[in-house]
Amino acid sequence: MEHKKWTEDAVLQEDLERIAESEIIDWEMLRGKRVLVTGATGLLGSLAARALVCASVSRSLDIRVAALVRNPRKGKTVLGAFMEDGLELVVGDILAPLTVDGPVDYILHGASMTASKDFVDRPVETISTTMRGTEHLLELARQKQVKGMVYLSSMEVYGIVGNAPGGGAAKVRETDYGYIDPLVVRSSYSEGKRMAEGLCAAYAHEYQVPVKTARLAQTFGAGIPGTENRVFAQFARSIMKGEDIVLHTDGSKAHCYCYTTDAVLGLLTVLLRGENGEAYNLSNEETYGTIREMAEMLIQNYPQSGSKLVFDIPEDANQYGYAPTSQMLICSEKAHGLGWKAQVALPEMFERLMRSMAYNAQ
Hints:
There is one protein chain. It is built from eleven helices and 14 strands. With 362 residues, it is α/β, with parallel strands linked by helices. It starts with 9 loop residues before the first helix and ends with a helix.
């Protein structure tokens, strides 16, 4: 299988090829189909859109990718290299009813607010984007009579789950739910995601829209934007600059992660094989650990950085928009039953992330 060179970022190029070469996806189901991707300039949306074009070219599938963007200039910057090979920009805002000319066979709905601080500073917009945007995409899916749709949700729908008997992490499956206080402003994200999932289930039941939900663990990898400020990006930058890793909490929060290529392969697996109206966890269970352990792992693996672990815990940690402290091992057995399993371990995730960040900083 021959591959076109899509990017000078060697890690991102490898990631695109890995997705295109994967045999866990029934690529023939996508032959000649048109796939609408929302959140197409975001981390996962952009990787999914580009990988579909890459697979289409390398496998001669004639997949057409419609990337929904609000800002066409940004869309061309992120996706321009793929526009000669089956990718088109569709300019629109999910906060308004959508009009997309022509057929739509599949939808990957990933548009969402993702910055934790925004959940606190802009909770109304966080909820509106999630709820109104998802309703508009479901209506479009209903009108176009799509063959499949995936809604990108989050492990945050589980809230605060009690520890396992005898202590330790709670192993969380798709039917396990914890506590979320709807009156806490930070809950704008998690409660919005819960309600959007409910809306997906309602459309699947009442209108037979073939929508599935993917609950993603925190996902990162090559191609993150330079403005990314989530913990993994902060840690990576600190190591690369030889600066101390600063924690603004005690670092006891623990959960799982997922590399971007694994996540995109999971989304495509759920899209093509998942049961309508169902939810599927997508995480790498072997990456489970606390924030503090993740920082210590990086310091140990990159001693040349000289970085140390420093705690600077403010009186009001809510100003950072961090999710409530919990310890959840997100179980992906249900997705394993579809033939998907995450492959990239946490040290490799960071190694690939930092190589990509170093290239893009040039």
